[in-house]
Amino acid sequence: MNLNATPSSHRVHIGFFGRTNSGKSSLVNAITNQQLAIVSDTKGTTTDPVSKAMELLPIGPVVIVDTPGLDDTGNLGNLRKERTKKIFSSIDIGVLVLDAERLFPLSDTELDIIKEFENRNLPFVITINKEDLITDKEKFKKLPEELAACEKHVLWVSAKNKTGIEKLKEHFGTLQQKTETHRPFICDRLSPLDSVILVIPIDEGAPKGRIILPQQQVLRELLENGIVTTVVRETELAEALNRTHPRAVITDSQVFDKVSPIVPSDIYLTSFSILMARYKGNLAQAVRGAKTIDSLESGAHILISEGCTHHRQCNDIGTVKLPKWIKLHTDKEFHLEWSSGNEFPENLTNYDLIIHCGGCMLNDREMQSRYEKAFKDRVPITNYGIFIAHLRGILERSTDIFGESL
Fold it and tell me: Same domain for 46 and 168?
């Protein structure tokens, strides 16, 4: 397995936080054994969050995120802090880096970071860095009163001498177990040797010679579970159905209108995007959200959001197809807005509906954060495939395979 090819969404994201000059970047370099971050005595050397995908034993594929100090000041400092705060939504493991020479008392910034970890139910570790600079070890081994409740999370390290680094990495491995969810796409609803047909159009938006990530992931799960799998384009589906009677057909949601009439009613039909919502843990909420479009009045505000920042094609689903299908379904005029990548709005209360992509390029934490934010702001949210299934009038059929488990 080529770990460098592991998608970012499948990697454990580890974020390093703290005050300026606490040694975050030095610690990142010591852990990775690479010069990933610029180290300097100058305050505020790290000006933006810096991410690096790599392999880190004993965990495996990870994304290391080094952040600016959260005690930065001034207008530019405030912008840096806002960018850093967004990182909390996407990390799986949090690391608070404290400076051993500035340990008493803990700053409000450091206490706020601990609260952020706890409020998000995020596995975390508190590292006290620059242990090598402390001469009176016994005095400083006594933790600040504010850390009494967090003592089990505390490790002493020296980025300079690399002491405590291996123990820290082993601790990451322990915390990683708390981040794993192991939700299936569909194989818990199938049996070994069941037959399944995957309908994969030649997507204009996919790089030449490749199929998109959700299709790869579903195919891998089917193969690993002994499901007999046939892969066709929508133009060959009818002939494939003549040759075999599968338990289920899984299609790209953009060709639901072509696929649905072909598939007999006694064969389950669903889409990769619907499976992605299930895999990410958002299926029930997304199904409820899709139905909201029928009750919206003209002038309502809809956000169409994508997790990646790909180059948009002339027939792009988010900016071209979805607006056209919404107009055909409702015959109403809505205010449409778009976001992509990390630029997901902090305040969602101005929207009446959010239509999100499947989130294959976002990790579970980030997707859960976005759905939770929508729930908190009482804004319905759905994803592309589920929404399209509703527009086509086949939402119930396309989720029928999940039955009461939905």
Answer: yes
Q: For residue 324, what are its two tokens? A: 């056209």
User: In sequence order, what E strands does 301-380 have?
Assistant: 301-306, 335-340, 353-356
Q: Is residue 398 part of a domain?
A: no
Q: For residue 106, what are the contacts with CB-CB under 8 A and spacing of at least 6?
A: 98, 144, 146, 147
Question: 25 with 142, same domain?
Answer: yes
- DSSP 3-state assignment of 337? strand
Q: Are 29 and 159 in contact (CB under 8 A)?
A: yes
263 within a domain of the structure (yes/no): yes
Partners of 161 in the β-ladder = none
Which of the listed residues 260, 276, 292 is the one where a domain comes to its end? 276
Say if residue 41 is in the same domain as residue 154: yes
Same domain for 23 and 166, yes or no, is: yes
Residue written as token pair 């799998």:
229
pLDDT tens, 335-352?
999 999 878 998 999 999
The answer as to whether 11 is a domain residue is: yes
What is the C-alpha separation between 304 and 312, in angstroms, rounded? 14
Residues 74 and 96 reside in one and the same domain? yes
Query: Over pLDDT 90: what percentage of the chain?
Result: 53
In a 3-state reduction of DSSP, which class is residue 383?
A: strand
Give the integer Cα–Cα distance in Å for 293 and 157: 54
292 & 246 share domain: no
d(CA 218, CA 224): 10
Q: Do residues 31 and 121 share a domain?
A: yes
Mean pLDDT over 372-381 rounds to: 96
Range of the domain at 266: 188-276
pTM for this entry? 0.79
Question: How many CB atoms neighbour CB 330 within 10 A?
Answer: 16
Cis peptide preceding 58, ω within 30 of 0: yes
Q: Got the DSSP string for 204-254? A: TTSPTT---HHHHHHHHHHHHTT-EEEEE-GGGHHHHHHH---SEEEE-GG
| Band (181; pLDDT cuts 50, 70, 90) | low
Q: Is 375 helix (H, G, I), strand (E, B) or coil?
A: helix
* 70 is a domain residue: yes
Token code pair at residue 246: 């599968």
Mean pLDDT of 368-392: 95
pLDDT digits (tens, 9 = 90+) for 188-214: 999 999 999 999 988 655 556 668 889
